[in-house]
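Q: Convert this sequence to structure tokens.
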Amino acid sequence: MFADQDMSEDIAPLFVAPSDEVFALSHEGGEHEAFEDLARQLADVHGVRHADSGTWHNCVELQTEHWMLQTDRLVDAYLDYSSHDTGDGLPVAGELEDHTQCLTDVELIDLFGQHLATLLHKSHHLYPNEVLIYHGYIGCSPLLPTVAVSLHTLATYCQIHRICPRFGIQAHCKLLCHLHSVCP
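A:
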């Protein structure tokens, strides 16, 4: 019986308990530096680079600042859109003079459709989202939107969420992906 106990004591140190993995890597013995060096070497071999040393918080702060810079102009564009909206997301004929500037290859997503489009600027539009809002969409990015969602789709989401507060934006996005046969 004592022989069995001695054998189990010899084997036990070979196994690490599930909560003790973090103790296998410490800063004191140089293991952390060795791990970082190995990670760097693997990144070099595979061509993986982490370009931004900022945090997610910094990224969100920067995007919020970009949205805030254009808020007044977006409100004006929305009021302009509301005054001429015919329900199809297109401006009234003749309102857009001949312009050489346009917003190209933006994926427009509506409740029952999606397509790539080129949208014309009005002479006073400075930001891409001004152009998008004028046409009834809002971009998913403050400065360089490549995807835009229709204002009608967002209004639909607001009404659904008002009736069923548990219906979140993630569920609405999955619904849109399903309707458009896009893998989420």
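Helices lie at 2-11, 31-46, 56-84, 128-134, 151-163, 169-179.
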